[in-house]
Amino acid sequence: MAILRAYALPHPILSIPAVGRGEERKLGKTLAAFDSVAKEIAFLRPDTIVFITPHNVVYEDYFHISPGNGAKGNCEDFGTKHVRLALNYDPNFSACVAHVSGKYGISAKTLGEKNAPLDHGVMVPLWFINRRFSKFKAMRVSPSKLDTKAHYRLGQCIAEAAVNIGRRTVVIASGNLSRNLKEKAQTGYLNEALDYDNEILDIFTTGDFNRLLNIPHNIREQSDECGHMVFSILAGCLDRRHINSNIFSYENHMGAGYAVAGFAPGPHNENRNFLEQSENQQRRLVLKSRSEEDAYCILARRALEYWVLHGLELPIPAGLPNEMITNRAGAFVSIYVNEQLRGASGALGPTTDHIAAEIVKNALGISQGDKKFPAVTMEELPDLVYKVDVIGKPELILDVEELDVTRYGVIVSCSDAWGVMLPNQPNIETGQQQVDAVRKRAGIADDATVRLEKFEVQRHE
User: Fold this and answer.
1) What is d(CA 348, CA 389) in angstroms, rounded to the nearest whole number?
2) Total-model pTM
3) Which H/E stretch holds residue 148?
């Protein structure tokens, strides 16, 4: 058998009446949609339901599948002892997914369980499903910190496993959309949040999952979503299948966007090979970037590749432009995959004898990885796009009005913390937005007195 249906569901814990205590009535559209989905699942009578949840343990480069024969959960952390839920797992299905994933070089296994009880990403949809149908087994799997394409591949593996093991399977991708939709939302309000929700709703409506794979990371980050990666796994489950999609509901409550969508797979459709389409698009962008590289970016690329391939620092080559070997300045090297930042290293002031040495040093720093980004692998090298920023001398300013976000970067510092932002950053349109974003990244309180410095950047890309 194959995937019978796939659903994108939110998980507002207040939708469970014992937790909401009347507040759930404000989510009338979502509650009605949940019940409609539960009725469909009861009609389909699946053998196995795959729950994809962002609120179980998440690893950097590994997809965690919950082990054992089952798990239980309750809502005591949400103020009630009257809700208790349980899942019976399907160990054979989980083992088949792990086997298929390994065949394609994807790490998806049942190791490292840190949170055995059911999380609310599972409990909310489970509560509604159980009211209509409970004679099924389940698999619970978490996303990882890998990119959207890796998540899509995992979805392909889940679909293949369902066929191989002969399970009538339903997929539940549990995730909220933006959590920045109203002033009283926990994390504030951003226009980009509504843009993100509208984009996801249109993707769900059209089934154009190529767009899902290519939404820039910074847009997702600013919307404060928690569902993008689980939706990417769902999309992979439907690879090369014609689908009929249905938006059951959309509403927001307390600044969070809740969408309920269903996808009914139909016949094979080779034109819906969205992962291949996305990868081909990325290759074209990389080739275009390589054809336009100047000496700065070429040096950064050669230095990083030399370390990854040989484990050695690249000697400064001959024939570089004179300013690269006679001038001293701070510099940043950044690498991108599919327009998403993959790593960055640099300094605001010079730390070596000249700019060329600065570039080599920073490329070496990226290649070895840090706390935020893992070391670069040989397999990644063909997909990397390079940018080099040469930093001008910082200048003290007294007011954010002196900032021009298209021309100047900014340094924001106080007695115990500091942060920096380069110019021309996506969704940063004013000096105040620039400073606020740096404060947030650096953990500087809104009311803390800060020192502001601006600097110009010579960008090479």
Assistant:
1) 10
2) 0.78
3) helix 148-165
Q: What's 59's DSSP letter? A: B
CA dist 429 and 427 (Å) reads 6
> Which of the four pLDDT bands, split at 50, 70 and 90, describes residue 182?
low
Percent of the chain with pLDDT over 70: 96
Token reading at 109: 């296994």
Sign of CA pseudo-dihedral 414, 416, 422, 425: negative
Which residue type, as a one-letter code, is found at position 188?
Answer: G
Decide if 333 contacts 368 (C-beta within 8 A).
no
Closest CA to 9 of 122, 145, 142, 94: 122
Cβ–Cβ < 8 Å for 138, 167:
no
Cα 169–Cα 82–Cα 84 angle in degrees, nearest 5: 30
Q: Are 360 and 354 in contact (CB under 8 A)?
A: no
pLDDT digits (tens, 9 = 90+) for 313-352: 999 999 999 999 999 999 999 998 877 788 889 988 999 9
pLDDT single digits (tens) 296-308:
999 999 999 999 9
Mean pLDDT over 428-439 rounds to 90
Radius of gyration of the chain (CA): 24
